[in-house]
Amino acid sequence: MAAISNVHNAPDVIIQAKERYCQALNATNLALRDPTLVAADSTLMAILLLGLFETVTFENWRDYQTWATHIEGATALLQVRGQEQFSRELGIQLYMQFRNQILQACIQRGARVPAALVEVTTEFESSRLGMRYVNNRPGSLALIGFRIVNLRADIKSQRITDPDAICQIILDIKSDLQAWAALQTHRAYYVTEVIEPRTGTYFNGKRHVYTSVWGAQVWNNWRSLGILANEILLNYVDQQNAYNESLKEAMRFEAFSAIRNLSTDICISTTDLSGSPRASTMIWPLYIVSQEEMNSAAVRSWAADHLHGIKVSLGIKQAAVLADAACPNWREPGLMSSIDIGS
Q1: Could you give the CA distance from residue 246 to residue 343 in angstroms, rounded to a whole number?
Q2: Is 294 strand, coil or helix?
Q3: Mind giving me the DSSP string for 130-180?
């Protein structure tokens, strides 16, 4: 109802939606106090939907704390549910949805991954169904994400300050990301098609065709992590002493190129998701692209424009708030900051 109100500018509908939200919130709080219902899938799903309501009605950064509170509550609830939740597919899917949201909240705050999520993830990967997931996918992209999020948090808090150590950690992470991608190629999760004639609908006249409904989300998670990792490397490569100037230059150029290539792939993947229910999975990848100053103004503007498109088509206001925070001048690319190492 809230999304319909946003799409069709129907203020009377949002009033009804907020009334339903309050009812759902009260019912969920009652369930959380019930020793039987607290660990039920329906309770965790209710918290997921309450959080979704917050993203839909997200007007400005003052609303961020309400959304984050739901995410924090889900983290504690995942821990309470224990390994039993991984005995069924619905439990696994709920865990994965919240894991992604928790990581997004940590990235936004510059905070470390909660110990409870690390514990739950270990339980998942050691469960019978969890091991099947791990065996079907080379390496754990989630654990790589944990390492990047924790490093960003440690840098922010000055828990780690040595440029040599930071660069070595990032190089190890980049190696693991590349290993993950290399082992995906034989499964052909996506192919790139060139669209003729070119139109503004397709970024660079290309589109991705994925072999599964979750393919774009998984690959865009990988691309987003790659952007964040290379961003850290660019910030510290000149300060470290382990490599000579020529090697530093090569590392700078490789990281810069990687950020731009990964951002381009995220933009290319956007078209087939736009206007579909899965478009919401593009919000954080597009936000990362739009705020990255290593990208050209055209790329940042495209990402911001599609974030606003998600708000228009799906009614998710958080997408537009993130776009405006990342690049306020997105309608005027000439006013947007952009760094070009190759110039």
Answers
A1: 17
A2: coil
A3: HHHHHHHSSS-HHHHHHHHHHHHHHHHTTS---HHHHHHHHHHHHHHHHHH
The continuous run of DSSP H or E covering 190 comes out as strand 190-194
Helix (H, G, I), strand (E, B) or coil at 71: helix
DSSP class of residue 315 equals: -
Side chain identity, residue 128: R
Per-residue confidence (pLDDT) for residue 134, from 0 to 100: 66
Which residue ranges make up each domain of the chain? 1-136, 138-343
Q: Which residues of 69-96 are buried (b: 16+ CB within 10 A; e: fewer)?
A: ebbebbbebbeebeeebbeeeebbebbe
Judged by DSSP in three states, 210 sits in: strand
pTM of the model: 0.86
Query: Burial of 317 by CB count in 10 Å (0-12 exposed, 13-18 middle, 19+ buried)?
Result: buried
Consecutive 10-residue averages of pLDDT for the chain (343 residues)? 55 70 84 90 88 75 70 84 91 89 87 91 87 66 93 96 96 94 68 65 75 78 96 94 89 96 92 70 92 92 89 82 80 54 49
Q: Which two structure tokens, joined as six digits, stand for 177?
A: 């990301």
Contact 269, 216 (CB under 8 A): yes
